[in-house]
Amino acid sequence: MASNTIDAKTSSNVNVQMSRRPSPIALAHIVLRTTPENYKKMVWFYQELLNGEIVLEEEAFVFLRYDYEHHRVGILKTPDTKPKEGDHAGLEHISFTFATLTDMARIYQHLKDLGIEPYWAVNHGMTSSMYYRDPEKNKVELQIENFDTPEEADAFVRGPLFQSNPIGTDIDPPSWADRILSKMKPTGEEGLSESEMREIKLRREIGPRNTMPDYVLAP
């Protein structure tokens, strides 16, 4: 009888585990299709945006990496690919997270020096974000996490401030970056104090905001 009880418990535990569908452990990479005319521009853009390293380059595609993964971004050209025209269903944007405020301010300044500026900059609350368009008009978000832990960010998203304003409060990129870079260490590392970082990351509340600006939604 005892063995039957153990078997029943074991079977029950197995059933519980099997009912939990597996989830991925990471988002591995993205692959973007481009026209032959924009191929080199696209490779250059993502090299500069991500400080990306080319790990494989063929006639029709490139693999880029910026961390431990063998490739994070693929760019593929095909002779029949046509440029995007107007609004269309599909991917809205992709997003990359930077480790520190200074890292994000430095990449903002680097891109600005190259003539690449964000079309929108906003403090969503849980992140501070800048949005760009690549040469094929794909939208790319660069962000910094505003909370120290996922639990704090999750609590904010579930809380009343985000429910009232899920869009965020716009920020001015030049003044935002200047403040951060003015404290940067000579080594390029974060020079802000803990209190300064908290102040910069804290969203300025503007009341209810539930509609995206038209220029953000534009294709």
From TrEMBL:
SUPFAM superfamilies in alphabetical order: Glyoxalase/Bleomycin resistance protein/Dihydroxybiphenyl dioxygenase (SSF54593)
Record-linked PROSITE patterns: VOC (PS51819)
Top-level taxon: Eukaryota
Annotated VOC domain residues: 26-145
Disordered: region residues: 184-205
Extent of Basic and acidic residues compositional bias: 195-205
Pfam families: Glyoxalase
Protein name: VOC domain-containing protein
